[in-house]
UniProtKB/TrEMBL annotation, chain A:
Chief site of localization: membrane
All copies of domain ABC transporter, residue ranges: 10-258
NCBIfam families: oligo_HPY
Protein name, UniProt field: Peptide/nickel transport system ATP-binding protein
GO cellular component, one term: plasma membrane
Keyword annotations of the record: ATP-binding, Cell membrane, Membrane, Nucleotide-binding, Transport
Automatic annotation (TrEMBL), chain B:
Keyword line: Cell membrane, Membrane, Transmembrane, Transmembrane helix, Transport
Entry protein name: Peptide/nickel transport system permease protein
Keyword presence, Cytoplasm: no
Membrane topology, as annotated: Multi-pass membrane protein
Similarity remark: Belongs to the binding-protein-dependent transport system permease family.
Entries under Pfam families matching the protein: BPD_transp_1, BPD_transp_1_N
UniProt xrefs under SUPFAM superfamilies: MetI-like (SSF161098)
């Protein structure tokens, strides 16, 4: 899928943090690309490196404690090597971010309107009153009732869903071409989650921006994403179109994620199938395939799982998988063992 | 917001009332419990050399023979209505607000204290401006350059600063800068600002710096800790993600939140100092409220001491009130509480 003319092109991105305990390789050789108007879902457990990646794209890593290498090309401009001041001017204007918990992500001392105005005025030389009109307009567009009154409220006076809408309004204030949403619905009620996802889809179509959704929730990805990138231990382990990932996933970890997803159509008698174990330490990454201690199919790799790091290999059109199992074997396990179990009861 | 202020105001008045009861109890009730007679108490009010007759008369005139509640009521009443003491054939008038009448100095307490207030206020506010600027900026820089040589030096200095007592640093700086180098006033002199601002500043310079160094050490540590905490908050990341300049992120988003606890402590510290910077004023022989209190205690002039305590408590309570209001202005979430 990497296309030379992609709007966002991430090449061999590595983000390492030297610590007293050793080098933490939060992101280790990540490649992906994204076109305008398209949505990429980055999926993984806590500590898989997905949030570190998103902060890297915004150029928010502190040079003092993070080592960033590789390339992040946004419309041809490399963010990794660029002058920090130049990247700052791009932040918020060309690329913007929606954070997970809007209560802690918005400043408690300033009104919602003020925070949107601030985001708008840092990149646009307009008067406060013009910016405020813009803020009211944005709040209305993200579905906040009586925006002209709510604009002067503080974040704590908003409900959770309204706060996330306001956060989205803030991110959209400068019509960014790239929008990154880091767990945008995790802190919200389920009913509100659906509204926020709908809103983001509508706005993306309206603005024709590229959207990256970072989440551990495959349901969110299924709602929005065109492409899906599954991360594990700082590496991409499966990458493909959403249809491929949901219909023909080939990595045992992806199967595990799908099995951990509650589905109403699966029936109440069927329990979830959680992945055993915990995400790997990023300092002492397991030898060989980082997933091998938790992988049910590890014995079938003939010992390679514990000794050799698998390469990310194309297994179908635009479908990349990092797994030692032979392609035919993976397809067989999915079709004959995993899929029937997931669909049991439906 | 107005309801909030009214609530706080009510609380402040109540606090003062309770403080006055406790203070009054300490001065007038506890000695009686401990076995002292009204005459024993009165002897303190007329000085050590008074005759037994004078003491007995004083005890009666002061109302020390009345029951405690009447005594307290008379004292409280005097604050609003003034009070006359008929004593040794003469009438001593203590006009409202009467915080007490010194029978040693033969004058009401409050005007004396108010006379000395400008000295203490000059000392407190002057030092406060220096320590806020010095302490907060050092703290912010230390937090931003955490682990750097500047940070280590500043924090080492701050640790020394909070550990050294003011009468020691005060005396040492007097020896070096006044007596040794002759750069500053030698203490004991005070020129009112309206008379000559330059002399005023010259006389107060060393006390300001000494006092400010002590406080700025504590403020630097507080600010550093606060900044380190706020700069790790999610909203700081949001501010950066918006593309704000780092300076804006640090001052508008970081420092503003970190300053909240500092503003609280600042208010209380200034309030406390306005009620008399006892050690500093003694060290530099400044004729302020703290010096007044020391003199009153040395002379066993209880009405003066009592007046001083109430006056100082008043400043602390007022400072608290201002802090509460400022807090609500800084942090909008407080207004709801």
């Amino acid at each position: 899928m990497p296309a030379p003319d992609a709007f966002l092109d991430v090449r061999d991105l590595r983000i390492h943090f030297p610590t007293d305990d050793g080098l933490v390789k939060s992101v280790d050789g990540l490649n992906f690309s994204l076109q305008r108007g398209k949505t990429l879902g980055i999926v993984g457990e806590s500590g898989s490196g997905k949030s570190v990646t998103s902060l890297g794209i915004l150029g928010l890593h502190n040079k003092r404690n993070a080592r960033v290498s590789g390339q992040i090309l946004l419309d041809g401009t490399d963010i990794v090597g660029a002058d920090p001041e130049h990247v700052r001017k791009m932040r918020g204007r060309r690329m913007a971010m929606i954070f997970q918990d809007p209560l802690s992500a918005m400043h408690p001392y300033y009104t919602v309107g003020h925070q949107i105005v601030e985001a708008y005025r840092v990149h646009n030389n307009v008067s406060k009153s013009v910016a405020k009109k813009h803020a009211i307009d944005l709040l209305g567009r993200v579905g906040i009732p009586q925006p002209d009154r709510r604009v002067d409220d503080y974040p704590h006076q908003f409900s959770g869903g309204m706060r996330q809408r306001a956060m989205i309004a803030m991110a959209l204030s400068c019509d960014p071409e790239l929008l990154i949403a880091d767990e945008p619905t995790t802190a919200l009620d389920v009913t509100v989650q659906a509204q926020i996802l709908d809103l983001m889809r509508d706005l993306q179509q309206e603005f024709n921006s590229a959207l990256i959704i970072i989440t551990h929730d495959l349901g969110v990805v299924a709602e929005l994403a065109d492409d899906v990138l599954v991360m594990y231990g700082g590496k991409c382990i499966e990458y493909g179109s959403a249809v491929t990932i949901f219909e023909e996933p080939e990595h045992p970890y992806t199967w595990g994620l799908l099995g951990s997803m509650p589905r109403l159509d699966r029936g109440v008698t069927n329990r979830l199938m959680p992945i055993k174990g915990t995400p790997p330490s990023l300092i002492n990454v397991p030898s060989g395939c980082a997933f091998h201690p938790r992988c049910t199919y590890e014995p079938q790799t003939g010992g390679r799982g514990t000794t050799e790091v698998p390469e990310l290999v194309e297994s179908g059109r635009g479908h990349l998988v990092r797994c030692h199992l032979p392609v035919a074997e993976r397809k067989r396990i999915w079709q004959e063992q995993v899929r029937p179990k997931l669909e049991a009861g439906s | 917001m107005i309801a909030y202020i009214i609530r706080r105001l009510f609380g402040a008045v109540l606090t003062l009332l309770i403080v006055s009861m406790i203070t009054f109890g300490i001065f007038y009730l506890v000695p009686r419990w401990a076995g002292g007679t009204a005459e024993d108490l009165a002897s303190r009010y007329v000085g050590r050399t008074a005759s037994p007759e004078a003491v007995a008369e004083a005890a009666k005139a002061l109302g020390l023979t009345d029951n405690f509640f009447k005594q307290y009521w008379d004292w409280l009443h005097a604050i609003f209505a003034g009070r006359d003491f008929i004593f040794g054939g003469s009438t001593y008038h203590c006009p409202a607000p009467c915080l007490g009448y010194s029978f040693i100095g033969r004058n009401p307490v409050l005007p004396d204290i108010l006379d000395r207030l400008p000295v203490t206020a000059s000392l407190a506010f002057g030092a406060a401006i220096i320590w806020v600027i010095l302490g907060v900026s050092t703290g912010v820089l230390s937090a931003l350059k955490r682990g750097s040589i500047f940070d280590r030096a500043a924090m080492g200095f701050a640790l020394g600063g909070v550990s050294l007592p003011i009468f020691w640093t005060g005396l040492v700086s007097l020896v070096i800068f006044s007596y040794g180098l002759g750069w500053t006033a030698r203490g004991g002199s005070y020129t009112p600002i309206e008379q000559n601002p330059l002399d005023w500043a010259y006389d107060l310079l060393l006390p300001w710096i000494t006092l400010a160094l002590l406080f700025s050490a504590a403020y630097a540590r507080l600010t550093r800790a606060g900044m380190l905490e706020t700069m790790g908050e999610d909203y700081i990341r949001t501010a950066r993600a918006k593309g704000l300049r780092e300076r804006t992120v640090v001052t508008k988003h970081g420092l503003r939140a970190a300053l909240t606890p500092i503003a609280t402590i600042f208010g209380l510290d200034v309030g406390l100092l306005l009620g008399g910077a006892v050690l500093t004023e003694s060290t530099f022989s400044l004729p302020g409220i703290g010096k007044y209190a020391i003199d009153a205690i040395t002379a066993s002039d209880m009405p003066k001491v009592m007046g001083f305590v109430i006056f100082s408590a008043g400043f602390v309570v007022i400072a608290n009130l201002i802090v509460d209001v400022v807090y609500a202005v800084i942090d909008p979430r407080v207004r709801l509480a």
